[in-house]
Automatic annotation (TrEMBL):
Gene3D superfamilies tied to this protein: 3.30.420.40
Residue ranges of coiled coil: none
Organism ancestry: Bacteria, Bacillati, Actinomycetota, Actinomycetes, Propionibacteriales
Gene Ontology biological process terms in this record: carbohydrate metabolic process
Protein's organism: Kribbella amoyensis
Domain Carbohydrate kinase FGGY C-terminal: residue ranges: 253-433
Residue span, Carbohydrate kinase FGGY N-terminal domain: 8-244
Keywords assigned by UniProt, alphabetized: Kinase, Transferase
UniProt protein name: Gluconokinase
Molecular function as annotated in GO: kinase activity
Entry-linked InterPro entries: ATPase_NBD, Carb_kinase_FGGY, FGGY_C, FGGY_Carb_Kinase, FGGY_N
Length: 475
């Protein structure tokens, strides 16, 4: 049953920031002023490394709790929930000590897997929802064993949970993001473990959604208001964002646009539709999965272009350019593509440039290209679930650009609803833990017929030019 008394402390473990905020327990709405943030700066290095300092990260997060405590916000807390980045990994020694920094999803280091002749990658993908890609643990663990004498492995949320409770465990949601989970059983996949060269005992134990723990004794004096408060298992940020945006069942696709973008549908794990090769699937909790597609270029594309073109604040919306305008077409492969596609980074292309084009034309083409990429994923999900899905929009990119909201709505050629809440990850983690069903609460948009018609006319040309860009990326 939903919990409606008290307040919820949400910890959001992002790649660019760690945040702690307080939410109301009845609708998971943020309590005004009850937010503390610790900025995170990933370290990028030669050879494709992209890491986080584990000690600095955890201490920064604990400092956020100190700030909330000092400002009187850690009172009447009845639950602690976590939303977290997926895919991170840390190699651990014999005493559980970290031997490496946090290896993030953006790190490109791994080794090629050693596979038997009877390996069926399509069956593997159908079972785990993942591919044998460097993003996932079956290719990370063999590489880490070559680098350090590791005896165990854990993700960032697992180690944060251990720091707070003394128990190193993980959730079915976080475990699914390792690419090592049998989605149907909720246990580590035997073939994935064999490819990784690891045993289930070397990975964090998977606890059920209803599991809770309490804050360890060392923090009782530091945060007395949290003593005895149940701490719930973490939810992967993609699943949490979907639920927090308002896309929590199979009738609705949630499109989130932040640094990157994704389109996803939450649905029951039982009798789930057969997973297409192009889509991934992770778990939300014991009963639900989330199926979708992610895109590497979104808000980062907008930030890069406005910086390169030195656009003033009032020029960062291409308001004078028609949605669906086709004289400039952008293929947004600047950061490459996510698996299973293999387009590398530095593959972005602009077609049709002339001396008449302005910064606004380039910006509009970029946002239109990103919208068409997201639309590809949405159409696959429509087909998978056998209906034209309702769409909710959320994330910083959605909030920042009215033009982009209209462009997405026209590209999808269907009404959309905008999520009014910015903290969708924290909101979703609270909803999963407490059994809530949040509504988007924002404006409703309808496609402008003329704009939708122009995008429909543009789409075949875009697809042809996209195919050329894919071909060129292999040269």
């Amino acid at each position: 049953m939903p919990t409606t008394d008290g307040r919820v402390l949400a910890l959001d473990l992002g790649t660019s920031s760690a945040r702690a905020l307080v939410l109301s327990a009845d609708d998971a709405a943020p309590v005004p002023g009850a937010l503390a943030r610790h900025r995170i700066s990933p370290t990028y290095g030669a050879g494709g490394s992209a890491t986080l300092d584990l000690h600095a990260y955890v201490e920064g997060l604990l400092g956020c709790l100190d700030e909330l405590q000092q400002n009187g916000h850690l009172v009447d807390i009845t639950a602690i929930v976590l939303s977290t980045q997926w895919h991170s990994i840390v190699a651990l020694g014999t005493k559980g000590e970290p031997l490496t920094p946090v290896i993030t999803w953006a790190d490109t280091r791994s080794v090629d897997p050693v596979l038997g002749k009877d390996f069926d990658e399509h069956a593997y993908h159908a079972r785990t929802g993942a591919w044998l890609h460097r993003l996932y643990w079956p290719r990370r663990i063999p590489w880490l064993r070559k680098e350090v004498a590791a005896t165990a492995f854990a993700g960032l949320p697992d180690l944060v949970l251990e720091r707070l409770t003394g128990e190193r465990v993980t959730s079915v949601s976080v475990a699914s993001g390792t690419g090592s989970l049998d989605l149907a059983t909720g246990r580590y996949d035997e073939e994935a473990l064999a490819i990784a060269g690891a045993s289930a005992g070397e990975l964090p134990a998977i606890v059920p959604t209803g599991w809770t723990a309490a804050l360890s004794a060392e923090y009782a004096r530091r945060w007395p208001g949290l003593v005895g408060v149940p701490i719930h298992p973490p939810t992967g940020d993609g699943a949490a964002s979907n639920v927090g945006t308002g896309g929590y069942d199979e009738t609705t696709a949630a499109v989130t646009v932040g640094t990157s973008a994704a389109v996803r549908v939450v649905h029951p794990i039982d009798n789930a539709p057969e997973l297409p090769w192009e889509l991934w699937r992770y778990r939300v909790d014991d009963e639900r999965a989330v199926t979708g597609m992610a895109f590497s270029a979104a808000g980062n594309l907008h930030a890069w272009l406005t910086s390169v073109l030195k656009l003033d604040k009032d020029q960062q919306e291409p308001t004078g350019v028609e949605i669906g305008s086709s004289h400039v077409v952008a293929i947004p492969f600047h950061a490459g593509t996510r698996p299973p596609a293999t387009v590398p980074s530095a593959s972005g292309v602009y077609f049709g440039l002339s001396f008449d084009d302005t910064g606004a034309d380039l910006l509009a083409a970029s946002l239109q290209g990103a919208s068409l990429e997201i639309d590809r994923g949405l159409r696959m999900l429509d087909s998978l679930f056998g209906r034209e899905l309702e769409v909710v929009l959320g994330g910083g990119g959605i909030d920042a650009s009215a033009w982009w909201r209209r462009c997405l709505t026209a590209t999808f050629a269907r009404p959309t609803t905008v999520c009014a809440e910015a903290e969708v990850g924290a909101r979703g983690a609270a909803a999963v833990a407490l059994g809530l069903s949040p509504e988007p609460g924002g404006e409703s948009l309808k496609p402008v017929p003329e704009e939708a018609a122009r995008v429909a006319e543009l789409r075949p040309r875009y697809e042809k030019l996209r195919a050329l860009a894919v071909e060129a990326s292999a040269i």
